[in-house]
Structure formats: structure tokens, C-alpha cells
Amino acid sequence: MTGPDEFHVHVDDRSQFRRVTLTDGTVAARFVPEAGMVGASLTDAGVELLGLGKGLDEYVANGVLFGLPVMHPWANRLGGYGYSTQSRTVTLTAGQPGLWTDGQGLVIHGLLAAHRGWRIESLSSNELTAVLDFGAHPELIAGFPYPHELALRVTLRDRTLTIATTVTATSDVPVPLCFGFHPYLTIPDVPREQWVVETPPMRHLELDAQLLPTGGATNQPARSAVLGDTVFDDGYDQVADGAVFAVSGGGRRVEVRFETGYPAAQVYAPIDQDVICFEPMAAPTDALRRGGYRCAMPNEPAEARFSIRV
After folding, report:
1. Sequence-ordered list of residues with C-beta below 8 angstroms from that of 224, at least 6 positions apart, any chain
2. Omega of the bond leading into 138 within 30 degrees of 0 (cis)
3. 82, 142 Cβ separation under 8 angstroms
């Protein structure tokens, strides 16, 4: 391996952020460690397969999701501005650093959108490891008082982008695992209405008007259907290790495999954007307030892994 400033790291003249590019044949993936370790591109023969919305600068400025962001320490929504877990009570405050809300005022997608605390630990042509010392940042600990190190190891091999996440407690306090990822996928040059969406067997969660789980659920078999005008913002649990979600069209197929450590999911496909998201989640929505999560115990790092195959 080479040093992080020697291989596939360059500064775009139009931006203050370094882009790290991994390659494997015709497939390339680009990440921006200094902007929250966000995935900013996934291409095959130059064709972009991530929905990039209004771009990186808008993501940095306003937390607008684009590309492939990490959602940590919670994925999706919290049902209120506070939670109690692991003998600690947390009160969140509107406007505190890193805190974003949805259209209904619920805090959403954690605290790390565009966070600059990531450091590159190792880098080669097809592998990148970046680390964030969560406990070293007072503004993060204020919203999630469980000191830990968060490491992402990203590899690109055999047309497959794999992201392995390791959470290591750095104190004697267990760390709740409620994180996730939000891959915005697109099939370019094919109308959204013609995309075919495949989902594995899992349990569909009943949601209330705020898109929070009510406690009800229905078993759902594996499905394959044309997207048409269907809109998704649906939660699921009981997702098996190795489960595959996919979108295809025009002779192109993109698969998201929940390799291990992601028993919950959100499927998101808005009507006004040509994107669909199969979101790997370490715990269901609002788990910090409701329970249903595992922990990284002291001296026992926890790992989760998913992949995107193109």
C-alpha cells in the first residue's frame, strides 16, 4: 500500500475537498473523507450509477443526502429530541452541530453528514480505510455519549464495492449500534417507470404518519416488480445475512447485498427523483428510543458489511 497522499488522491480545483478514487477494470468508486467519508460516485465505463442530487457542495452545506453517505450513530428518524439507553439520558437541541431534521421536524440520519474528522489510514488502487475517533469530538459526544472509534474499510473488486464498518468502544461503556448507509442508486437512460425492483423475504413494518414504526408488522415474501409510479419510504426488519436487493433496467443491474450485521432496511424511492435506495441498517428506525439494537461491547469490536455489485 502507498501513503494516503501518494495514490489516487487529488484535489479538484473547484472544491476544497480531496477525492479518493478506487478502480477495478471499468468500475470506479470515489469517496470524500473530508466531507463525511461520503461516496460521491460509482461508475461503470464512465456511466454514473449513484444519484448525486444537487452535488457535494449542497450536501456539505445543508445535509442534503446524495451519493452514498454513512448515517451514524443512528439511521433514519428518531421519534423525539432525546433518548435514554445504556444508563445515559441524552437531550438533543435543534440547531446543534450535525443535527438535521426531516420535513416534519424529526431529527434524521445521525450526526456525521459532511463531518471533517475522518482520517485516511490506508489506501491502494482498490482499497481505502478511513477512521473517525468519535470520542475526540465534543460536539459528537454531546449527541451520542458513547466514546468509540468508527472505521470504514472500502474495497472494490470483481465489480463489487464492499463497505465493512467496525465500531470499537474506547471506554467501558457499550456503544449502541443503530447506524446505516443510504445508497442513492439510479439506472441512467432508463425511465424510472421501467425499473425492475427486487427485494428479499423480510418483515414489512407498519409506520405511522411520521414514518415511525407502530409495532405492527407483516411478513413479506421475496418480490420482483416494475417500479412504475410506486413510491417507497418503507421500513423492514428480519432481513437475513446475505439478502439481496436489486434494481435493473436497460440491460443494467445493480445489487445491494446485506452481507452481515444489517437486520433492518429502509427502501426509499421518491416520485420526484430518479433514484431508489436500499438502506442497510444495523437496527430499525427509532431503535435508540425503542430498543431492538445490539452493542459494541468494550474490548469486543462489532462489524457490519454490505456490498454493491454493478
Report:
1. 196, 197, 198, 199
2. no
3. no
Amino acid at 257: R
Could you read off the pLDDT of 246-293 as tens digits, one per residue?
999 999 999 999 999 999 999 999 999 999 999 999 999 999 999 999
Euclidean distance between CA atoms 280 and 1, whole angstroms? 29
Give whole-number Cα distances, 131 to 62, 69, 162, 282, in Å.
Answer: 23, 15, 16, 19
Query: How long is the chain?
Result: 310
211 contacts 245 by C-beta, under 8 angstroms: no
What is the per-residue pLDDT for 45?
96
Pairing of strands 70-71, 82-85: unpaired
Measured between alpha carbons, how far is 224 from 221 in angstroms, rounded to an integer?
A: 10
Q: CATH second-level architecture of 9-189+282-309?
A: Distorted Sandwich (2.70)
Q: Number of C-alpha atoms within 13 angstroms, CB side, residue 20? A: 31
- Whether the per-residue pLDDT at 25 is higher than 70: the answer is yes
Assess whether pLDDT exceeds 60 at residue 39.
Answer: yes
Q: Is 9 a residue whose pLDDT tops 60?
A: no
